[in-house]
Amino acid sequence: MTNLATLLTTSAAQYTSDPAIILDELHMTYGQLDDLSARGAALLKANGIRPGDRVALVLPNVPHMAVLYYAILRAGGIVVPLNPLLTPRELTYHFQDSGCSFVLAWEDMAQASQKAAEEIEGLNVLPISARGTVERLQGVDPDRDVVERQDSDTAVLLYTSGTTGRPKGAELTHHNLLTNAEVSGEVFNLHHGDVMFGGLPFFHVFGQTVALNGVICSGAAVTLLPRFHPGKALEILRRDGVTIFAGVPTMYVALLHQANQDPQAVEGVDLRAGVSGGSPMPVEVMVKFEKVFNTTVFEGYGLSETSPVVCFNQPGNERKPGSIGTAVRGAELRVVDGDDQQVPTNEVGELVVRGQYVMKGYWNKPEATENAMRGGWFHTGDMAREDEDGAFFIVDRKKDMILRGGYNVYPREVEEAIYQFPGVVEAAVLGVPSEKHGEEVGAVVVFESGVLESKGREALTQELDAFVQERVAKYKYPRIYRVTDELPKGPTGKILKRELTLDA
Fold first, then answer.
1. Closest CA to 25 of 130, 129, 174
2. In angstroms, how far is the first alpha carbon of the chain from the final one?
3. Average confidence (pLDDT) per 10 residues, the chain, 504 residues
4. CB 247 within 8 A of CB 275
5. CA angle, 437 as apex, 436 and 442 as ends, to 5°?
6. Among 96, 251, 101, residue whose Cα is nearest residue 159
7. Which residues pair with 19 in a beta bridge?
8. In 339-403, which ranges are continuous DSSP H helix?
9. Residue 390, SS3?
10. Helices in 377-492 by DSSP H: which ranges?
11. CB of 42 within 8 A of CB of 141?
12. d(CA 136, CA 185)
């Protein structure tokens, strides 16, 4: 049988009494998760949900999210996971574009979903509450059948972040997500007894595959943090004996900053490994984190359209800090030029991917699908190079590249230099329109408050400028600096450069 929900039913049969989902004092076993999802499937069927119907999930990382995710799949439906912080206007777009027939929304966010659904005839919203929903499910007779689906049937309609234009729904199939959960378990050596940190939102592909499906597939447990806060995260790492921390680089930065403020907070934390993705991790941050937390960080790569894991620094292989590692089993990667021809070793080009994890296509967008899947390869939009050992290095997003006076400047290289400066917490390098050079290089920097107070913005910026000039070519170093208290971030903690502005 092909159905992503079999990840749960298989593990529940083997690990019935063991914890699957943890949220503070609540410990939900595999047996309980399986039972509640079967009752949820029965409730959905009673409300008319049929195989192939789209059901929107508007929930934070709470146990109900996992229960309902697998309930929709068991009923043969397609999960449409959405960020609970979306506005009613944004929700209306996603509801209409997906053609969803039912919405399950967390109690604090149900009002926005109901307002969004008013514009769509016949669309019902069921508010999900912390206690009431569980009590309601317990009053429903479970439907333990798992609807059989084909490998190529869509399991999840995952909307891209929409950094350019309106978000598109990536159709991820049961085969895409099943196999990627399995390979994630292999890559991270996940096994029964492991506890994964669950601060990555399940409505995002990284958290959904690595911290939910990968965990359930392996018989491990995931401990949830609905909204990331470094102090609370460290408390969870200690309290629940977390063995693997999965996060985006800004989460690692925040934990390091918290540890600097309160060194005792790290005592009792015993991580076997860290897993980083979502955006490139500065090598300086990786080195510091490994030293402070006495662990090893494995960086990798993936996208919504690739389920997501396609490349990783894999335990047991040579780890190359600064690289995204090598292709995982079942994925092929290569670097191509503008004519889609493979470039020589160590030359920069666009990274393209093919294999069993690549999406079926964009929902109801054949032209966008055809453009992204040219020649059978998914074009990522990321600039990369491949070394002689088959390890890949992300240079930068194609759209983020700065063209200064005819020279290509890749922001990540400059950011790496900035992160080496003592007292830097976060940095973002971006292009600024310039009459003289076309684009000028600018940097927005966050310093540790103590360092900033002791030296002052102007003196500190001058020191940073001199520091960076020693480390990058003359045409690459920033001519414009702005110091700020924090950088804007998306729902997964990824820095949003499109929301930053600088004047030449």
1. 130
2. 59
3. 95 98 98 98 97 98 98 98 91 96 94 94 94 93 97 96 75 98 95 97 96 98 96 97 96 94 94 93 94 96 96 89 96 96 96 98 96 96 95 90 86 93 95 88 94 90 95 92 93 88 78
4. yes
5. 110
6. 96
7. 29
8. 366-372
9. coil
10. 411-419, 449-455, 457-469
11. yes
12. 34
User: Residue 86: CB partners within 8 Å, gap ≥ 6?
Assistant: 58, 94, 112
Give 89-107 pLDDT, tens digit per residue: 899 999 999 999 999 999 9
Dig out the tokens for 34 from the structure. Answer: 């399986």
Name the residue with tokens 């076309």. Answer: 438
CA distance linking residue 462 with residue 444, whole number of Å:
14
Residues in the chain: 504
Closest to 214 in 3D by CA, of 239, 197, 232, 231 = 197
In this prediction the pTM is 0.89
Give yes or no for a contact between 75 and 212, defined as CB atoms under 8 angstroms apart.
no
Residue 418's CB is within 10 A of a number of other CB atoms, namely 24
**pLDDT score at 408:** 84
Rounded to the nearest 5 percent, the helix, strand and coil shares of the chain are 35, 25, 40
Amino acid occupying residue 394: I
Q: What pLDDT, on a 0 to 100 scale, did the predictor assign at position 24? A: 97
- Type of residue numbered 423: G
The amino acid occupying position 303 is: L
Task: Report whether 352 contacts 377 (CB < 8 A).
Answer: yes
Strands laid side by side in the 124-128 sheet? 124-128, 102-106, 54-58, 78-81, 154-159, 169-173, 361-362
Q: 3-state DSSP call for residue 385?
A: strand
Beta strands across the sheet bearing 26-29: 26-29, 19-23, 221-224, 195-198, 244-247, 273-276, 297-302, 309-312, 326-327
Q: What is the pLDDT of residues 141-188, one digit of tens each?
A: 999 999 999 999 999 999 986 545 689 999 999 999 999 999 999 999
**Gap between the Cα atoms of 273 and 295, Å rounded:** 6
Q: How many CA atoms lie within 13 A of 493 on its CB side?
A: 27
